[in-house]
Amino acid sequence: MLDGVHLGHQKILQALINKAKYHNGKSVIITFWPHPRLVISNEPILLLNTLDEKLSLIREKGVDYVFILPFTREFSMLSPDKFILFLYEELKFKGIIIGYDHHFGKDGSGNFNLVKKISKSFIFDVVQVSAFKKNNKNISSTKIRNLLLSGNILRANEFLGYHYTISGTVIKGNKLGCRLGFPTANLKIPQEKLIPANGVYAVKVFCRNGQSFLGMLNIGKKPTVNTDTKKLFIEVHIFNFDRDIYGESITASILDKIRDEKKFSNTNELKKQLEKDKQIISQRINHWS
């Protein structure tokens, strides 16, 4: 599924591009939408990338084409050999790149050995890419999800090979940030997107016109001023910025976690802490460059 397009996935993408160049052909990625787990088990899963984010990351790596196959329950019943034959009839490919632990087809029964066997009849290359290790540990989307949910953004970014991002539409809030001298852009995030642990984060914010600004992102329940413990707020204060961006989509690239969310005795204490947070981020900017 390439969720996250992390360093392990990037290793596969590079092998694909190299193989395509060797054959004087085009590199093609096959992916599914929606995520198979949502269809097969009806099990909720939070994704590291929305579909648009994933496609953008894949394009950045230089892949020529991406085929998005609609994943349905009927499609999940396709046997592994029929799935490979379906792809071969559609693409007439000269080679397949497969991850070290990749399984496909009905009940996940397809693997590298099966593809290798089929390749002898249709004469195409098969390359299995080994695991990408960091500190002697395999990198996986699941590990990165757990790191983000625990607030370990630095290690998650290390495994991703880029800064984790959150993109959303700016919606109206209660204007409390403005009254405190810290106006915020409240973000509406796609439902399937994984949100890191509650806390305050240093971010780089990218606006629609391509401009970027330093900022601080708050994820949490805003316990000092809010009594609704069920609602999650995602808001970003953009440094040195004064423009109406309601309705626009912005992206926050998360650099580091500054602190956990905290309940203060009053809004004056909250404002003092926000000033400290902003100062810390401004002083550390070169650390994240």
What is the share of helical residues? Answer: 25-40%
Classification by helices and strands: alpha+beta
CATH homologous superfamily identity of the largest domain: HUPs
Q: Count helical runs.
A: 10
Rough outline: elongated
| Sheet with the most strands: spatial strand order | 7-8-11-10-9-12
- Unreliable parts: none
H-E order: HEHHEHHEHEEEHHEHEEEEEH
What's the alpha carbon Rg, rounded to whole Å? 22 Å
- At the first level of CATH, the class of the largest domain is Alpha Beta
Main β-sheet, in a few words? 6 strands, antiparallel, barrel
| End-to-end separation | 30 Å
Number of strands: 12
* CATH fold group of the largest domain: Rossmann fold
The fraction of residues assigned to DSSP E strands is: 15-25%
CATH architecture of the largest domain: 3-Layer(aba) Sandwich
Number of domains: 2
Q: Compute the average pLDDT.
A: 93
Structure description:
- The structure is a single chain.
- The protein folds into 2 domains: 7-138, HUPs (Rossmann fold, 3-Layer(aba) Sandwich), CATH 3.40.50; 163-288, Riboflavin kinase-like (Elongation Factor Tu (Ef-tu), domain 3), CATH 2.40.30.30.
- The chain is built from 10 helices and 12 strands.
- It has helices at 7-22, 36-40, 51-60, 73-76, 80-91, 112-122, 141-149, 153-160, 176-180, 267-288; strands at 28-33, 65-70, 95-99, 125-129, 133-134, 137-138, 165-171, 185-188, 199-206, 212-220, 233-238, 249-259.
- It has a 6-stranded antiparallel beta barrel. Strands 1-2 form a two-stranded parallel sheet. A two-stranded parallel ribbon has the order 3-4.
- A hairpin with a 5-residue loop joins β9 and β10.
- The mean pLDDT is 93.
